[in-house]
Structure formats: structure tokens, C-alpha cells
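Protein modeling request. Please complete all fields; requests missing the sequence field cannot be processed.
Requester role: graduate student
Desired output: 3D structure, C-alpha cell encoding
Chains: 1
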Amino acid sequence: MSKPKLLLHICCAPCSASAVTALKDGCDISFYWFNPNIYDEEEYRKRKESAVKYAAFSGVKFLEEENFIYDYSSWKDRSKEICSLCYEIRLEKTALFAKNNGFDYFSTSLLSSPYQKHSLVKDTAEKFSKRFDVKFLYKDFRDGFYEGKNLLRRQGYYMQKYCACDKSYRERQLKIKNEN
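Delivered output (180 residues):
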């Protein structure tokens, strides 16, 4: 019997590790990369390269939004509630991609991170599951987050220092400044 096809939105390699560990035996996983929220272009490139590398290592297909051109300014111009909009944009695209490409389920590595707004991620994904009539696979991957992240760190994967947007970047810079 074949495994159900799962489209897993990934925000970065470190966050995807615990999700892959939890899902690989029961699902045929494909990674989906759509992250217009990442500031700046160099950071975007590093995270994407690391995600591609981890997909190859894990034996997972790497997919991304066709014809997407990185343009942080267009994303930022639309943002008011940074986190909620960030989840909305990415999970809407993920659910629609899953529906249009014959996936049985979709999920997200955002559910791995203890730094994300877990309930908001879940509620947002469920909203798009209903809207596009595609199943959302909910699982709390946070238990394995640090183990997966540390494994990837030891293997030399890129480890980002802030969530993604310019707001989180500035907050990180301010924290570093205040610690010195």
C-alpha cells in the first residue's frame, strides 16, 4: 500500500528536521519552499540552499512556487500584523499548491519551532484546508525540535539567527547590542 502524499511547507532546514523524523515512515513527503517573508536576499539564499541540501540528504523532493522572484519590499508593503500575515500568505500558497498538485495532505515545519505562534499556525492552516478542500495534517513537532536542530548543526547546516522578517532581524540586533 502506498503512503499518503504530504506537502510539507518548510521555512528552513533546522525546523524541518523534527517534522521529517515524525512523518517519514507514514508519509511520502515533498518539501514546499515559499517564504517571501525572509529578510534580506542573502539570508533568503542561505536558508533556501540549506533547505535544498537537507531535502537531498533526507531523500525528499524539493518543490517551490513557480515563477517566484524574491522581492522582500513587496511582501513588507502588504504587512500589518507581521506574524499573522506571514502565516496567511505562506499557508494559503501551500494549501493551494497541495490541492492543485494532487497531494493528500499539507502541513508546515512552522509547527516544529517553539518560537512560532503554534495555535495561530494551526488555525490558519485549518482555515485554508477548508477553503481549498485539502486535508491539513496537524502534528506538534516541537518535542524533537532541539534534537533535530542540533543534529543539523553538527552536520554543518546553516543556522539562522532570527525568525525571518526585518522586524525580527532588528529585534535580534537590538538584543545583541544590549548584551554587549
